[in-house]
Amino acid sequence: MKKVYLFVLGLLIMAPGLVFATSTNGQGSTNGNAGSSSASTDSFTTDETTVTTQTRTQTQTNNPETGVMTQTQTQAEEQIQSEIGQASSQYTPKNSKGIEQRSIVANTTEELIRSAAQIENKGIGDQIRLVAQTQTKNQDKIGESIDKVETRSKLAKFFIGANYKELKLAKQVMNENQVQIQELEQIITQLTSDTEKIAIANQIIVLQQIQLELKDQLEELSNGFSLFGWINRWKNNF
Questions:
Q1: C-alpha to C-alpha distance for 147 and 136, rounded to whole angstroms
Q2: From 50's CA, which of 71, 139, 166, 200 has a CA 20 to 30 Å away?
Q3: What average pLDDT values come out for the chain (238 residues) when binned by 10 residues?
Q4: Residue 142's closest CA among 109, 110, 98, 104?
């Protein structure tokens, strides 16, 4: 009986230690599991971020509308800008009307060059590009000739008339422009895309409008009374 009593008493003394040990081991196991779970979660999160980044990069590459241009698109745009620069105006008219016309032709030239870059048929694209470049150069010539006509003194106009030499030159350049406009109209018939046709047709309308304005301007500059202007006019076959 005494041994049983001592055994029970020993259990009562050891019980708190057993409970504490069990609690500690449980907590350690829990913490260990939690640590393992946290590491696993961190690993998964890192992988997911990498995959997401790769997916986003791939999406941006395949979809330019996301705001990121591919290397090919960048090179194409640089080429277009170079062509626009080469076709830029080199002469600044002295009157507001000439400046306005130069600006309109410059915008038309840019649009034609951009349209040419979108056309799959490189031959047709080159034709459009050539017309665009020539239109700008011709507008410079016309603007310079008109400035020379307008700067003739009133006294000179009274005796020998307008500067028919420059008027004739401007008219010849306009005729060249008209031929190129007709070439653009012919090019439209070779295009298969309605979008491309409309883009070129819109620029033709603008160029035709400039032609009409210049025609009226030249007629106005060629008119006016002069004593011997008819001789000068006949001499220059205007």
A1: 17
A2: 71
A3: 46 46 42 40 41 42 56 82 88 94 96 93 94 95 97 91 95 97 96 94 97 96 87 85
A4: 98
Give the domain range for residue 8: 1-68
pLDDT at residue number 204: 97
How far, in Å, CA of 213 to CA of 207, rounded? 10
Nearest to 183 by CA among 215, 139, 135: 135
Four-point Cα dihedral 191, 195, 199, 200, nearest 10: 10
- Give φ, ψ of 163 to 5 degrees: -80, 85
Picking from 21, 48, 68, the residue at the C-terminal end of a domain is 68
Tell me what pLDDT residue 15 has: 47
The pair of structure tokens assigned to 26 is 């449980």
Q: What is the pTM of this model?
A: 0.68
Owner of token pair 């830029």: 88
Q: Mark whether 61 and 142 lie in a shared domain.
A: no
Please give the torsion angle defined by the CA atoms of residues 14, 19, 20 and 25, in that order, rounded to the nearest 10 degrees.
120
- Residue 68 is predicted with a pLDDT of 61
Q: Total structural domains in the chain?
A: 2
